[in-house]
TrEMBL record:
GO molecular function terms noted in the UniProt entry: ATP binding; carbohydrate binding; protein serine/threonine kinase activity
Compositional bias annotation for Polar residues: 801-819
Chain's gene name: LOC113716670
Transmembrane stretches, start-end: 427-449
UniProt xrefs under PANTHER family: G-TYPE LECTIN S-RECEPTOR-LIKE SERINE/THREONINE-PROTEIN KINASE SD2-5, G-TYPE LECTIN S-RECEPTOR-LIKE SERINE_THREONINE-PROTEIN KINASE SD2-5
Residues annotated to bind ATP: 522
Domain of life: Eukaryota
Family: Belongs to the protein kinase superfamily. Ser/Thr protein kinase family.
Species lineage: Eukaryota, Viridiplantae, Streptophyta, Embryophyta, Tracheophyta
Name of the protein in its database record: Receptor-like serine/threonine-protein kinase
Protein kinase domain sequence ranges: 493-766
Enzyme nomenclature, EC number: 2.7.11.1
Domain Bulb-type lectin: 41-156
Residue segments, region Disordered: 794-819
GO CC, any one term: membrane
Length: 819
């Protein structure tokens, strides 16, 4: 949102507040605790200072209030967990209101929301003896009757989330927010089982608790009629309240936690635990268990591969969805294509077959019914037909289905498919030739490498190192050179020329007596003893790679800790990328691409090829340095923390630079090398766009670059993503490769992000880049910050004061997503 838009909202807000004050004796002041009385009425504006919240539970863990939706000018009435801002219930998720619309708890006992005078949501409890509204410590919003009975409760009207002690029974339904394909998912108890379905016409189940092997059976037999989250399990009961099954969704088991199960818009049920102190920990146990076992794993017709990629099945020429349905086409422009017997679909395990027949009968029934889009046939005679289909998966061992997919065809297309057989053999030959060529090349390279190694070993030591040794003495073998503080003081002319300031301290330019240029980093806030420091330095010092800045030496005297690096003539990438209007020199596309590739190689080496796995944790353009020939080298690695392979995933103490942080930093989930992949993705986008991820000097729809870029990609306007100052050959497909890779890297879900090695392969063109999944989700947590800044505005200052740049920036930052 731009500054002016915000300002106009603010002015509108202050007006409405005035009007309201004049009009009615409004509810106001501090939020109510525990209970609201009949006759309450208010709008968002009355509670701006309290982030829109007007009713707190006695324990202050939950609150009822207004929250903005994706469109920050539209609001919903929600119950949320205060500490984490997780919304556990919404009154009007699909029917949003404006900031000036009223919530009313009428004297007749009805609670309702109105928009422009008409009621858009109501509890329908008029004249039923309701005497109060209470928000219980469990998060349940209830309307209490004159005999203390519960007349209405939010727990009986769930939206997409369940919390501890909320009974989920037959007839209730969780529905996810629709994803960008306008597809939503639902959870229901049906036919004695708990079923997740994609809301196609008709709905397609893709997971059932009764089929999940992680479920623990407590009592055999019987139909599930209710389910409840309790501690760290989800428990399932029959009619007589006998526990049939339970499912352990977290290994944590604290007494004081509230479990949360949310049906997300990608079709997963995600579990988390809310601590009483407001902390929140996401569980790593998802439903369904396998990322590929759901229709939204990839776009329709794509095959979900394990290593988080989506491929169009080879039998299909393209997986792009046609806007015309098969029924609108003539019979002979539609063809049922054999997709082989290695594919499967998530619904197959769960739904009953459409018919029992043989393969030909099955094919015929799909061909005859114009709305049939895909069919699967099992030897047992089971024939499955689908009108709509999500992404496919590889068949699990044991069950093989013959799969056929309907495609649109035309004269030339038909001929092509006719020649499918010879096509295949041709492909095989080409592949064999390529593989043998590659093997030969690798063989040669390896031999060369061995020879080189031997030669290197034969030499005494590199001249550079020995000269340093002569000057400064005491070189422990394997360790980088130890420098004396005095020598570094002289080399840097008493730290007079500052090159920059990073997260760990300032960097100074220096030169050795022999003319070698240095970059000397004075570390700050490193509370480590000499020994530990030396141990870490020795590890960092041993890491050598073309795309990593080399550590030459170090100094540890008294409290001083310094690192001595090779000097990079062209400084850091940000200096070249974000120059505005300085015309003279710009990085051209080839240079940028090689910088992107080099950075990826450096990171891949850190993640996968070192003795100890190193997660960088602070990838940003400032930490990508360029040598005299613009070769990219990653700097500052190993400083955040060294991570051994054993302790990966439990890294939570240090934080990288705001702006490039992966969502798991915010949600307190485990940090891994995939967090670097995320930051790399943002840097890659910045390299492509020549601009910062968030730039408030841009018009509002462009200010958050990833969202804008994704939209442009979907609309096929790649040229709007690329730095306008670049001249790019239209046939150069490295541009679209880089863009797609960037979107794979910035997926919210860690497992969807590729490894850095894979990134390198994709950028090098060794392996294809599938179309990236949608990055539709933006966590709800960002809105907490939105409110904080909004009420900072309205709070102390008088309404209508223009907002300072600083505030605008805060707001803008909060809207740029959870980073
Ligand atoms: C909140 O606490 C008050 C005072 O202890 C109590 O009377 C009331 O019933 C509680 N309300 C709820 C909703 O728990
Ligand atoms: C409680 O509400 C019911 C339903 O409106 C009404 O019939 C009854 O008289 C009320 N009781 C009292 C004590 O107000
Ligand atoms: C999404 O689906 C809803 C209901 O199924 C429909 O009303 C709406 O128009 C759809 N939106 C888009 C963009 O297709
Ligand atoms: C909650 O988080 C804070 C800060 O992140 C931490 O200091 C505290 O120990 C955490 N509490 C629990 C119970 O984990
Ligand atoms: C086939 O046609 C019938 C009736 O027109 C329809 O109900 C059904 O959904 C269609 N599709 C399949 C896959 O059977
Ligand atoms: C797959 O096959 C292996 C060996 O035959 C077996 O141990 C494993 O349980 C099978 N997995 C599934 C999911 O059926
Ligand atoms: C047939 O399809 C191909 C692509 O599959 C397309 O290039 C061609 O124009 C189409 N021909 C006709 C006659 O529609």
């Amino acid at each position: 949102m731009g500054k002016w838009e915000f300002l106009s909202i603010k002015v509108a807000l202050s007006f409405s507040i005035l009007l309201l004050l004049l009009e009615t004796c409004m509810a106001g002041g501090t939020p109510n605790v525990g209970r609201l009385n009949l006759g309450f009425q208010g709008t968002l504006m009355n509670w701006l200072d309290y982030e829109g919240l007007f009713l707190l539970s006695n324990n202050s863990a939950f609150a009822l209030g207004f929250r903005p939706s994706q469109d920050v000018n539209k609001f919903q009435l929600v119950v949320l967990h205060k500490g984490s801002s997780i919304i556990i219930w919404s009154a009007n998720r699909n029917n949003l209101i404006q900031s000036s619309d009223f919530f009313t708890f009428a004297r007749n006992g009805d609670a309702y929301l109105q928009r422009g005078g008409s009621t858009i949501w109501s509890t329908d409890t008029a004249n039923k003896g309701v005497v109060a509204m209470e928000l219980l410590d469990s998060g349940n919003l209830v309307l209490v009757g004159n005999d203390s009975s519960i007349i209405w409760q939010s727990f009986s009207h769930p939206t997409d989330t369940l919390v501890s002690n909320q009974e989920f029974t037959e007839g209730m339904k969780l529905v996810s927010n629709p994803n960008s394909d306008n597809l939503s998912y639902s959870l229901e108890i049906k036919s004695g089982d708990v079923i997740l379905s994609a809301n196609y016409q008709p709905p397609q189940p893709y997971w059932a608790m009764g089929m999940d092997t992680r479920r623990i059976v407590d009592t055999d037999g019987g139909d599930v009629v209710s389910a409840i989250l309790d501690g760290n399990s989800w428990k399932f009961y029959n009619q007589d309240k006998v526990l049939l099954w339970h499912f352990v969704f977290s290994h944590n088991h604290d007494e004081d936690t509230t479990g949360v199960a949310a049906l997300e818009n990608d079709g997963f049920i995600a579990f988390s635990l809310l601590q009483a102190d407001g902390n929140f920990s996401a569980s790593s146990i998802p439903i369904p268990p396998d990322p590929c076992s759901r229709p939204a794993a990839c776009d329709p017709y794509f095959v979900c591969e394990i290593e988080s990629s989506c491929l169009c099945p080879s039998a299909l020429h393209s997986c792009t969805k046609s806007s015309v349905s098969f029924c609108d086409r003539s019979q002979d422009s539609v063809e049922l294509v054999d997709a082989g017997d290695t594919l499967s679909y998530s619904a197959l395990d769960i739904i009953p077959p459409s018919s029992k027949t043989d393969l030909n009968g099955c094919k015929a029934s799909c061909q005859e019914n114009c709305s049939c889009a895909a069919m699967f046939f099992h030897q047992s005679g089971n024939c499955f037909l689908f009108d709509q289909i999500g992404s496919l998966q590889h068949s699990k061992n044991g069950t093989q289905y013959a799969s056929y997919i309907k495609v649109l065809t035309n004269a030339s297309g038909g001929a092509n498919q006719g020649g499918g057989g010879t096509h295949k053999t041709r492909y095989v030959i080409v592949i064999v030739v390529i593989i043998s060529a590659l093997l030969a090349i690798f063989g040669l390279l390896y031999a060369g490498y061995q020879y080189h190694q031997k030669k290197n070993k034969a030499l005494p030591e590199s001249p550079e190192e020995s000269s340093e040794e002569e000057i400064f003495g005491e070189n422990l073998s394997g360790l980088p050179v130890r420098f004396r503080y005095n020598d570094l003081q002289i080399a840097t002319n008493n730290f007079s020329k500052k090159l920059g300031r990073g997260g760990f301290g300032s960097v100074y330019q220096g030169v050795l007596p022999d003319g070698t240029r240095l970059a000397v980093k004075k570390l700050e806030g490193i509370g480590q003893g000499k020994k530990e420091f030396q141990a870490e330095v020795s590890i960092i010092g041993r890491i050598r790679h073309l795309h990593l800045v080399r550590l030459i030496g170090f100094c540890a005297e008294g409290n001083d800790r310094l690192l001595v690096y090779e000097y990079m003539g062209n400084g850091s990438l940000d200096r070249w990328l974000f120059r505005k209007n300085r015309g003279e020199f710009m990085l051209d596309w080839e240079t940028r691409y090689s910088i992107a590739l080099g950075t990826a190689k450096g990171l891949a080496y850190l993640h996968e090829d070192c003795d100890v796995k190193i997660v960088h944790c602070d990838i940003k353009p400032e930490n990508v340095l360029l040598d005299d020939h613009f070769v990219a080298k990653v700097s500052d690695f190993g400083l955040a923390k060294l991570m051994t392979r054993e302790e990966s995933n439990v890294f939570t103490t240090l934080r990288g630079t705001r702006g490039y942080l992966a969502p798991e930093w915010i949600t307190n989930s485990a940090i891994s090398e995939k967090s670097d992949v995320y930051s790399y993705g943002l840097v890659l986008l910045e390299i492509i766009g020549g601009r910062r991820t968030f730039d408030r000097s841009e018009p509002s729809e462009k200010s958050h670059f990833p969202s804008y870029a994704f939209k442009m990609m979907e609309e096929g306007k790649l040229e709007d993503i690329i730095d306008g100052r670049l001249k790019i050959d239209e046939k150069d497909d490295t541009v679209s490769t880089a863009i797609k890779v960037a979107f794979w890297c910035i997926q919210d879900k860690m497992f969807l992000r590729p490894s850095m090695t894979k990134v390198v392969q994709m950028l090098e063109g060794i392996c294809p880049v599938p179309p990236p999944p949608r990055c539709s989700q933006l966590g709800s947590q960002r809105y907490a910050v939105f409110f904080r800044s909004m009420s900072n505005q309205g709070g102390g200052a008088s309404p209508g004061t223009p907002m300072s740049n600083n505030d605008a920036h805060l707001l803008a930052t909060s809207l740029s997503g959870p980073r």
